[in-house]
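Z., the sequence and structure:
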Amino acid sequence: MLALAAMNKTLITTVALAGLLLAACGDDDKSSDSADTTAATIAPGEFDLASVPVDQEAQQCAAGKTLEEGKLVLATGDPAFPPYMLDDDPSSGQGFESALALAVAKTMGFDGDTVSWIRTSFDTAAAGSDTGFDFNLQQFTITEERKQVVSFSDPYYTANQAVLGYADGAGADVTKLSDLKSLKLGAAAGTTSLQFIEDVIQPDAEPFAYNSNADAKAALDAKQIDAIITDLPTGLYLSAVEIEGTVVFGQFPVDAGGAGDQWGLLFPKDSALVECVNMALAALAESGATAAITQEWMADWTEAPTLSKD
């Protein structure tokens, strides 16, 4: 896995430089067959789209609620980047959001030729200007402002806090939260990342607060601090594109405190399909599929293991 992860990080860098850079529960009256298929049985590293069962309740819910009867139109960005989509191919199932979207579709009974993809810009979709899709995923953070013009599913991912530094720097041996106490840490002022340093890590030295992630990046680049605390997606981007020679040493579990933004699948405002997708997300969470997808593409693939709280 380490060798593969190293190759994958190279791919992240190459692709990013080229362009850039769970869940509402259904009713308890499911059939026994459906309930059996959603038992928590999928372990991290064992996800296989072919084995995802159709959830009968979600399938019945989705009938007649898509843009085109019997078909599902998904949307993503142009281009789409790793680790969310590999090789800018959302239909491959390779990448965090590609795998998750196709698993949701399969759970509702859509598979193969009944699923198609279109491309939209992030801004127009978030503003409610694009509506030619059943749902869209481009790491959209759920916010009250956006909910005025679009609808969201239940969260499918929470952007955990992560630690970024030089591969040969003072944070290279970090495996748990307490390892960070002796380091000089920095983060953007006014962010949950800075609050995470102060309230959760509680370092021996006062953390450095910067006006922006760009300023924190400059301080790390100048070796004025040992590591940056930021949300995982930002850390992956900084490592792949902005600061050569750095790595994301790891991410912290949600229950460590200071979790970042929650992402949701985005729908045209008041779409009747939202409740059906939430049923699908609940089934995937219950089966362990969502956790397995997240582990494969947001931890193992990106070389960002979950660090211990102790």
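Residues 97 and 197 are 29 Å apart (CA to CA). The beta strands are 72-76, 115-119, 135-136, 150-158, 161-166, 185-188, 208-210, 227-231, 246-251, 262-268.

Let me know what you think.
H.
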